[in-house]
Specification:
Layout (H helix, E strand, L loop, with lengths): L1 H11 L6 E5 L7 H12 L3 E7 L32 E4 L2 E7 L3 H16 L7 E8 L5 H5 L1 H12 L4 E6 L13 H19 L9 E7 L13 E5 L22 H5 L5 E8 L8 H11 L3 E2 L3
Parallel strand pairs: 1-2, 1-5, 2-4, 5-6, 6-7, 8-9, 8-10
Antiparallel strand pairs: 3-4, 7-9
């Protein structure tokens, strides 16, 4: 409840609708990304979706020019023999690219955004929610994270990578499942808090890696979740973290997501190597989002 109230206050104090580019590595027709698309639009943002034509999980930062489809897109969302890129026939803001996640995000930045926003670029890139967590070693191979590091490092657009521990792939036109709604509402709440914190939303070469626990039991009500500042890699040989909650070593993402109490890990990632960012950059995020963050319980 505290997090929801804070988000409302932040919005009242100046958060506003911005231009958001959405992408993922599970495919443009996956339910998670479509439900989040609706939530972000309902929150007043101007959202363009540009994602792979099919599931491309685990492809990291791969990027190659798209090619025509020989088979239908995932969930039969485009016919066999389609062109290399395409969109929803009734909604040009829903786009697919027949290539890797990073390629789809690049097309969003370079092609779809200028077309639909009169030459303007995205102000924020939102990747995911991924179907399944992206923790520690997984971060290096995640297309969801690859999109975020492309945005922040290659084109200088702040980015958030969201992932959810609940498994199971869901089609865009199937009945909406609880976890899809929960993750979409939480991702929108966090996105709004980042926006309300003011520009620049993130330091240079930094992305945020956000992992939701399983949406089950008590963790099906967005009001029950807490946000915890964490680190991607264990950091046994790393420099110390920003000091918070009485320590200068942040908990790992895994320890947060696997703990009881519906706790969400929020890691400040270094876009150059996909590991934990330095303490000074963590401190900036702590200052900007400190009112939203809790200590690990």
């Amino acid at each position: 409840m505290r997090a929801q109230l804070l988000s409302s206050v932040l919005l009242a104090l100046g958060a506003h609708g911005i231009r958001i580019l959405q992408s993922n590595d599970d495919g443009w027709a996956e339910q998670y990304i479509r439900v989040l698309h609706d939530e972000l639009n309902n929150a007043g943002h101007d959202v363009i979706l540009s994602a792979p034509a099919e599931n491309k999980s685990g492809t990291g930062s791969s990027d190659t020019e798209p090619s025509p489809r020989t088979q239908a897109c995932e969930y039969n969302s485009c016919p066999a023999g389609s062109a290399a890129v395409g969109n929803n026939a009734t909604n040009p803001r829903l786009n697919w690219v027949n290539s890797f996640p990073v390629t789809s995000a690049r097309f969003g930045v370079e092609t779809f955004a200028p077309q639909l926003w009169n030459g303007q670029a995205p102000e924020l890139v939102v990747s995911g929610p991924n179907v399944g967590s992206n923790l520690f070693i997984e971060v290096q191979f995640s297309g969801t994270v690859g999109i975020a590091t492309y945005a922040t490092h290659d084109v200088g657009i702040p980015a958030i990578a969201f992932s959810g521990a609940s498994s199971g792939r869901l089609a865009f036109d199937a009945p909406v499942e609880t976890q899809s709604t929960v993750y979409a509402k939480l991702a929108t709440q966090f996105t709004n808090a980042v926006i309300a914190s003011g520009v620049p939303y993130l330091p240079d070469d930094v992305f945020l890696n956000v992992n939701f626990p399983k949406a089950e039991g008590d963790c099906t009500d967005p009001a029950n979740f807490k946000w915890v500042l964490s680190r991607i890699n264990p950091g046994l040989l790393s420099e110390r973290d920003v000091e918070t909650c009485g320590t200068d070593r942040l908990p790992t993402e895994s320890s947060v997501v696997n703990a009881d109490g519906c706790q969400i890990s929020v890691s400040v990632g270094d876009s150059t190597d996909k590991t934990t960012a330095s303490a000074d950059k963590q401190a900036i995020i702590l200052q900007k989002l400190g009112g939203l963050l809790s200590c690990l319980e």
